[in-house]
Amino acid sequence: MSTVARFTATTMISYDLLETIEDQLLAEMNDLRDSFNPLADRLPLADGLEILKVHFKAFHALLGPNGDRNFEAKMLEGFSKRFDALIPNDSPENELAKSVIGAAGFASLKYWLFNSDKIDGNQTIEVAEKILTKGALTYIRRLAQHNQQF
User: Fold this and answer.
1) Under 8 Å CB-to-CB from 134, ≥6 apart: which residues?
2) Angle at which helices 69-81 and 92-115 pack, to 10 degrees?
3) Over the range 56-79, which residues count as b (16 or more CB within 10 Å of their CB) and which as e?
4) Confidence at residue 9, expressed as pLDDT on a 0 to 100 scale
5) Who has greater pLDDT, 61 or 84?
């Protein structure tokens, strides 16, 4: 077997392995998403955090600066997808709302993943849930009032 053929075969095996790992991680996140009722349940960020903790190294590598942007896009799509049954894709406003809500949840988990040495997972979830349930501007105003010095 030539060097080129060995390189090609090794590369294909590597990509197949990467795809298998990504598919398994996405399946866990999707199972969590599918079990979540946005109208009745609490936000599942704590459960998502547990999945990230179990597979910390894999998520850290895949979502890091040298990670797979397609994996990140699939995760973001999954985060906003749970709202498909509630919010139809019949207008740009609805699509944007789903995208923003999904991105906020994903960003919260990703923030913890890359800052776990600075912030506890429970703190991350607490802040994210306050922002998502009370609104970003309300949360920012509260922080600004708390930090104002006269």
Assistant:
1) none
2) 120
3) eeebeebbeeeebeebeebbbebb
4) 45
5) 61
